Amino acid sequence: MVNVTELRPGNYFEEEGNIYRVIDILLNKTAMRKMVAKVKVKNLRTGAVTEIARNSGYQIETIRLDKKQMQYLYDSGETLVFMDQNTYEQVEISKDRLQWESQLLKGDELVEIISYGSEILGVNLPAKVALKVTQCDPATRGDTINKAMKEVTLETGLKTKVPMFIEEGEVVLIRTDNGEYDGRA
Questions:
Q1: Residue 22: which CATH number?
Q2: Cβ proximity of 117 and 131 under 8 Å
């Protein structure tokens, strides 16, 4: 058990049957009342991001999650299949739980599977992934005052904006936290 004011981004805790990951914490202290911790959290079971506020002194039970390196194999329709490279054990995770991640996985990538007990909560992707541009419009002259960008479709179906000089068939680096272009691969 730790005081709510001791939480840091990246910590995990369980409260009221939900498992949360701390995204950000803001400590607010005024002269007339106790310190209030506003904690921005992500519910790992539902994926919802919310903010909870607790007074200083509120005790929270932090937990440790199991993380296991696994290889993404394929999309079976309703689930994504991952394999442990040491034991060759395969795990299927519902596509509903991994909607964002499925747009960034193309096959054979190593990812980190997060679980609590026997329940699989999600997947940690690498910071950047290399994806091939499958469809894009040709570069056009025009707005060059601002950063000139165009929309492309990547091999996984993800649509994102890239600089005008990127052409169909090129491999680009995409950030997994927000899906933005990061550079050429």
A1: 2.30.30.30
A2: no
